[in-house]
Amino acid sequence: xxxxxxxxxxxxxxxxxxxxxxxxxxxxxxxxxxxxxxxxxxxxxxxxxxxxxxxxxxxxxxxx
Length: 64
Known about the structure:
The chain is 31% helix and 41% strand.
């Protein structure tokens, strides 16, 4: 079993997500409901790489 890493707000220190067993877990509270969203870290890495590639391409395009 892997260790849980809690991600905390840089301003108030409250937890906003955790990483456990290779997934990012975010619990959101909307009104009286709690929603849990889970994303595998390899998928998050793929999305981050895509975003970096798009930004790099945008910067490298000549401006008119």
